[in-house]
């Protein structure tokens, strides 16, 4: 009986949301293109040949939220900035302390980042990836140490936020952000 109730939860409780309009698709595409282009242009044109990096994989997931799900609480500025910044610090710390056991450093970084984002009201799913990248990233990422939390994590997120503020408020049908704090 108890098992049936447990598995019944997996059926879901609602239907799939409706499709978005073509206009919404177009503005999401434009925002994502410009946001990632800005971060990638800095990475490949200004930082090329240095030990710095600006593009991290978790920014792709942030782009989905910032430009495609702009009303989501997870896409708001506090969540974006805090989620990446705090998770980067946690990831670097876990790599430094537990890096000899990469499986443990990886799991601890992501789990601790999620817990910390919950506590600080900065839950941003790509933050989990930012923490994980600090552990499993390249030597270039590891060489940054705690600077990783500033560049690329905070600065890249700030650039994407600026693009979100500009692009998401062009059409009358969109407004961003829903809240700041």
What do these coordinates show?
With 181 residues, the chain is mainly alpha-helical. It has one domain. The protein is 65% helix and 0% strand. The protein is built from 8 helices and no strands. It has helices at 2-8, 22-46, 58-68, 77-98, 102-119, 126-136, 139-144, 150-167. The protein is flat. 38% of the residues are buried.
What does this entry show, briefly?
This protein has 181 residues and is mostly helical. The chain has helices spanning 2-8, 22-46, 58-68, 77-98, 102-119, 126-136, 139-144, 150-167.
Protein traits:
181 residues, mainly alpha, 65% helix
Number of domains: 1
Q: What's the total helix number? A: 8
Per DSSP E runs of 2 or more residues, the count of β-strands stands at: 0
Distance between the termini: 44 Å
Shape designation: flat
Helical percent range? 55-70%
Q: What is the N-to-C succession of helices and strands?
A: HHHHHHHH
**Strand residue percentage:** under 5%
Report the mean per-residue pLDDT as an integer.
96
What structural category arises from helix and sheet content?
mainly alpha
Return Rg in Å.
18 Å
Q: How does the major sheet shape up?
A: none
Low-confidence runs of at least 5 consecutive residues:
none
